[in-house]
Amino acid sequence: MSSRRGRITDEEINELISKLQALVPESSRRRSASRSSASKLLKETCGYIKSLHQEVEDLSDRLSELMSTLDETSPQAEIIRGLLR
């Protein structure tokens, strides 16, 4: 692949794949970052991002439930609001 403006080299792609592989828990166990596994890595990354989004939604729901049970002026509510800022 040419390194002309806007193009990325094979070496850069391999480096980016390695970096992505290190960020995704399921992929970090594998050592080889061959081009043939790039498709699988991208699928795993998408799945991991979806699971993180779901975890954020679940935690947000739990926090909303918790906040609804607290008195707005309670010390606990103040601490939680402080942590969220």
Automatic annotation (TrEMBL):
PROSITE patterns linked: BHLH
Coiled coil (residue ranges): none
Keyword Transcription applies: yes
Key words, A-Z: Growth regulation, Transcription, Transcription regulation
Highest taxon, organism lineage: Eukaryota
Keyword Transcription: yes
Domain BHLH: 1-52
Gene Ontology terms, MF aspect: protein dimerization activity
SUPFAM superfamilies per the UniProt record, alphabetical: HLH, helix-loop-helix DNA-binding domain
InterPro entries registered for this protein in UniProt: bHLH_dom (IPR011598), HLH_DNA-bd_sf (IPR036638), PRE (IPR044293)
A biological process from GO: regulation of growth
PANTHER family, sorted: TRANSCRIPTION FACTOR PRE, TRANSCRIPTION FACTOR PRE5
Record family assignment: Belongs to the bHLH protein family.
Protein name as it appears in the record: BHLH domain-containing protein
Protein source organism: Triticum aestivum
Taxon lineage: Eukaryota, Viridiplantae, Streptophyta, Embryophyta, Tracheophyta
